[in-house]
Amino acid sequence: MKLSILMPKLDDWSHRDDFNVFIESHLSYISKNFIVERKEVTDNIGSIYKGDFYGLLNYVSIPFDLHYIVMRVNGFNNSVDYDGTPFVLLIPSLKEITILRKIFRTNKTAKPE
């Protein structure tokens, strides 16, 4: 079996450097206005995913293409930064992130006059 079969299907926008720059420029706005869910991460779960924030996001069923955004909204710069301590996981609205993605795509395809 090919390993690529087991890999999640990535939407091309979710891991593009230019999209991540776009998200970074809107991070404060996303953090203040788009949080729709909060999930408590306990000691037990936190210790399992110490150093693996993306693994934690998989565990709580966050879609793979939102991992970077959720990581940044929660104040981490890298998946390995999570130290396993309990905290409240902030989850932004998928609907609002989709709107930002559409704005990003529109700006990328718009041609200057």
Written account of the structure:
With 113 residues, this protein is mainly alpha-helical. It has a domain at 35-107. It is 50% helix and 12% strand. The chain has seven helices and two strands, in the order H-H-H-E-H-H-H-E-H. Strands 1-2 form a two-stranded antiparallel sheet. The model has no long low-confidence stretch (mean pLDDT 86).
Mean of residue pLDDT values: 86
User: Are there runs of 5+ residues with pLDDT below 50, and where?
Assistant: none
Largest sheet, described in full? 2 strands, antiparallel
Order of secondary-structure elements: HHHEHHHEH
Radius of gyration: 15 Å
Topology:
Blueprint lengths: L2 H4 L10 H9 L1 H7 L1 E7 L1 H6 L4 H7 L7 H7 L13 E6 L1 H16 L4
Antiparallel strand pairs: 1-2
Could you provide a short overview of the structure?
The protein has 113 residues and is mainly α. It has helices at 3-6, 17-25, 27-33, 43-48, 53-59, 67-73, 94-109, and strands spanning 35-41, 87-92.
